[in-house]
Amino acid sequence: MSTPRAAAYARLKARFARIAALGEAAAMLHWDASAMMPPGGAAARGEQLAVIAGLSHELLTAPEVAEDLAAAEAQGAWDEANLALMRRAHARATALPTALVEATARANSACEKVWREAKARADFAMVRPHLEEVVGLQRETAQALSAALGLDPYDALMDGYQRGVTAAEVEPIFARYEAFLRDALPRAEAIQAARPAPIPPRGPFPVAAQRALCRRLSERLGLDYAHARLDESLHPFCGGIPSDVRITTFYAEDNFAKALLGVLHETGHALYERGLPEAWARQPAGEAAGMAAHESQSLIMEMQACRSDAFLAFLGPELHAAFGGDPAPYAPDNLARLWRRVERGFIRVDADELTYPAHVILRFRLERALIGGALAVADLPGAWNEGFSRLLGLTPPDDARGCLQDIHWYDGAFGYFPSYTLGAMAAAQLMGAARRDLPGLDASLARGEVRPLTGWLREKVHAEGARLGFQDLLRAATGKPLDPQDFLHHLRARYLAAG
Amino acid sequence: MSTPRAAAYARLKARFARIAALGEAAAMLHWDASAMMPPGGAAARGEQLAVIAGLSHELLTAPEVAEDLAAAEAQGAWDEANLALMRRAHARATALPTALVEATARANSACEKVWREAKARADFAMVRPHLEEVVGLQRETAQALSAALGLDPYDALMDGYQRGVTAAEVEPIFARYEAFLRDALPRAEAIQAARPAPIPPRGPFPVAAQRALCRRLSERLGLDYAHARLDESLHPFCGGIPSDVRITTFYAEDNFAKALLGVLHETGHALYERGLPEAWARQPAGEAAGMAAHESQSLIMEMQACRSDAFLAFLGPELHAAFGGDPAPYAPDNLARLWRRVERGFIRVDADELTYPAHVILRFRLERALIGGALAVADLPGAWNEGFSRLLGLTPPDDARGCLQDIHWYDGAFGYFPSYTLGAMAAAQLMGAARRDLPGLDASLARGEVRPLTGWLREKVHAEGARLGFQDLLRAATGKPLDPQDFLHHLRARYLAAG
Description:
2 copies of one chain form a homodimer. The first copy, chain A, has helices at about 5-35, 40-60, 65-70, 75-95, 100-120, 125-150, 155-160, 165-195, 205-220, 255-275, 290-305, 310-325, 330-340, 355-370, 380-390, 420-435, 440-445, 450-460, 470-480, 485-495, and strands spanning about 230, 240, 245-250. By secondary structure, chain A is mainly α. Chain A folds into 2 domains: about 1-95; about 155-499, Neurolysin, domain 3 (Orthogonal Bundle), CATH 1.10.1370.30. A 3-stranded mixed sheet of chain A has the order 1-3-2, sandwiched between helices. In chain A, helix 9 packs parallel to helix 10 (about 255-275). The longest helix of chain A is centred in the first third of the chain and has 32 residues, at about 5-35. Chain A is globular, with a radius of gyration of 23 Å. The relative contact order of chain A is 0.12. The interface of A and B includes residues 18, 41 and 224 of A.
């Protein structure tokens, strides 16, 4: 017995499942492009992805979708959330004229190409006209979404990455971090300076041994290679789909830490995808709850669990067994000094846990000003250097180590950067709640058993899909919305406890 | 100045380019499924490919396509051929009701799954009901296509793999081969028996050395790894797209020949794809000219060029340099005896060049009878064994070495098998023409230079795309339509010349 309102919802579910299957295909093609594709395949790959994106957009904006969305009725919390997410996806898609979507794709791709060259030459002027076009189109997009969604323009962009989080919520959290860092950073540096310098492990570290170690440890975290692959690419990432996740890393023979910590990080992302509710596969409610939630899952593995004293006590002997040689560098306290070293630097992706948020805060403020119109692209390098110096007391020697370093803006991603630090804060908050719920957690980590934590995350975060927004997800898992206190507490314990 | 008739053609070109881009995406996902995908990804991959196939079908059968096809006018040989191919693709797609297409996909996939188990157990009864359903749907498909295209039902299926070739043309060619073989096979066996037995090379042959050798030789044939990859899969194949071809092989440490000859074969396929006319990319006229033409390109490389006396003279020392040890097995005449060994066997994919067509002739006749209704699925094993014994004088000891051995029928591919032998014959005919056009061809091969041949094929075959049908392509390249004489001549020279 299907009512017309239930039938409308059923049609929508079938349509969104088709759109999601196209999205899965695109995800695989993106992974292939980064991990497998010969350079000669790039042009055709762009064409394939453009056609898939265009068809997805047509499926989502077809006239009957609006009718079904208006008529549909869903029963129960999951279905109601699913229908609400369908309405949101449809509203975002129909807000944007096809011409704007296509112009954006073209401009982003052209800008990104020039950016690679401009970054290599540290020549901002070279890419400036392209970035102006990209920012102009992002402003237009933000305006169109703003009108359709009733959000502030920048918030409308951020909402695409992290549903329901606004700049008005983020700014005070970031301001508080800025104030914390002003005092904490010199103290952490002083404490570090008073300790013995860490002993670096001596390579070479054969790639085969690194690969085996990375795979073994990711399995220990709970990754099942009947549903996953570990490959190599220039930048580590997690791609693929829930039943077939693809993580990558980059091996250097003289340093195993980058590949290993990268794999632990990407495994966190992969476990989130693997744990999404299968019953809601290819439905909006079955997706991950956004980029901040995703980053919380990679960082809780990499930063909270795997760099903890407890886990390092397990990991040290493992590493020595894998690579041999002098055992001293693999002593847990030496690893802690190595992998928790605070160092002011220009490059976000190389930053330590304590200074990383400063890199994000700078970008958040600048991109908000760019989208809002308060900052012109021409003034970006100056504003960057000024802001960087205020936050970290250093002035970038050139734009390659300044506003040219990240691909994001040059590829049209505005509103994404806050996710990194919101994710770091959420990771600390979730770890605190997990420690309360699982009293033996650190003892398990010291035995190399990460799965109790993974199980807790699966239940509290992964299995919830996108049913709850970021804040509600945290509320349900930890008893409160995002609270930076847990992150500050974690940083104080890790970096400011002299001794 | 675009006339309405020219505008209709332009719209069609844009639509077919979109369909082709979806096909490229599917090709990449198929490659990934065979070469990369963890087992847990299979179900989702099936869903992705089904959605892509469904959308392609919708794009091809949309009402406006029929209008545009009726109105469109194209100028020039290429555009006219392109438009004719569009009409053919549309006629084939619209002939089949969506329900039949979906039922076929489901039945094929279910049957194929059971077949794997049935083959492992040599239990035909287990898969029989599934094969009955598959054959029933293929008959229905053949009837529907027959009515739409004005072809005999079996021909309508074969036309999907090899445009314009009919069973009435194929049967006399195959009958002639059967007659030739009756006499030639015992003679070849006697000649072989009188020669010294070949000395098998002694392994192990490290996989890394095999991989490097395979890559080097495929480059020598003309494959450019800026547009290609060589990977591993259970069965060697050539996948991907023209600007990004993906060949695979399977390495065994105790025998390098299978991997190497597989790579030479797949490289022939890959060179065909690479040489398709770029100006016609993603248009029907820019595709390969069908499966027999494709097989001619793999076999001209593997069988005609690389197993020739000339090339073996080059290859022998190369192999010895790669693997070391006793040089005797790598002597060109020993390689010839090894790699041209005639041996009656049950398995098509292991068959030698002389007996291979018998395997194909058997399947062609049986599948034609299955589709025509003269043979019931229940009677297939008996008919197989009887036919096999008549052709090769052996009776398969079980159905795993009989009618269960190939995936094709169990996956719904009827009308495909003839391509293998039509391709082998076309390869011999093309090689004859190439030898006439390039007087130094064998001398080049003896120096390991295959590119003169590749260049000739690129001009005569690859660059023609699908503009010409199989017979016209051969006519233009060699001066005559398919003529089995050239193949028989080649076999006589290679297997029946005592000495």
